[in-house]
Write a structure and sequence with these properties.
This protein is of the alpha/beta class and about 325 residues long. The protein has two domains: about 210 residues, Rossmann fold; about 90 residues, Rossmann fold (3-Layer(aba) Sandwich). The strands form two sheets. It has a six-stranded mixed sheet, with helices on both faces. The chain has a four-stranded parallel sheet with strand order 5-4-3-6, sandwiched between helices. Helix 1 packs across helix 6 and helix 2 packs across helix 3.
Length: about 325
Amino acid sequence: MNLRPPGLEEIEAARARIADAALRTPLIPLEAPGDQEIWLKLENLQPIGSFKLRGAANFIGSRSRSELERGVWTASAGNMAQGVAWNARRLGIPCAVVVPENAPKTKVEAVERLGGRVVKTSIESWFEVFRTREFDGMDGVFVHAFSDPDVLAGNATVALEILEDLPDVDAVIVPFGGGGLACGIAAGFAATDSEVEVFASEVIGQAPLAASLRAGEAVSIDYTPSFVDGIGGPHVEPEMWELANELLAGALLVRLEEVAAAIKLLAERSRVIAEGAGGSSVAAALGGAPGARRVACVVSGGNLDVSRLRDILDGRVP
């Protein structure tokens, strides 16, 4: 699939389309050690606790009522699932979600509260859905969690908000899962002719983008699941690799211990609850973004199981 980055007109249209669904989230400073100025783009404050509401709202809002008659479905570890289910409930249409067998309980229960039908499958089978866009028993319109132009345009609206609130930002760090948020935000900056650099944050052992950037081509890795469930995987989808290689300034690797420490710091100093993926960008910023003095971190989501949060606040890595 050939996937191109959205242009400014498409991003502005997405912004108007999702205005009654997604919040314009705040950008706040983080009290942190070091010389780097760190800001937090709090997408964890969206109605579903994640940025995924933006892409889901733009995708579904771009479809006619007749197209959506049989409902929508997606494959997600939990956050895009909630975004699709939230929008489906608002329209009164059916929603089904394919989740991996290790999907966090907090996210699965949230999907069910929103009226979504949850179908669990193996991690391998779940990753395959992103490639095939098919799964037995699913009906209606498939909403891809990251590899779709309307989803990218919805995500790109984050870049416009950051530029308005912090026009002299040097770099933005974005958690990298499928790549839809990082590439969408980078496309947003590119569409405005901004020179802001966008870095991906990845966790060691779950970092296919960093490995692909080193190799100069999309490669597979030995993937190790962890409490950081919203990002990482065994590979980068080919079309997302092309976009990431074109748009991103690089990938910053962090350890699980650093992510847990960043989540603890956010809770203690900013009263912000971030899930593993959302904490990864802050962990990367605390390690230092190359050549940047003023850095914005996208706290992509806050849907963290209470038991994991308890472990982290007690100084343990879940």
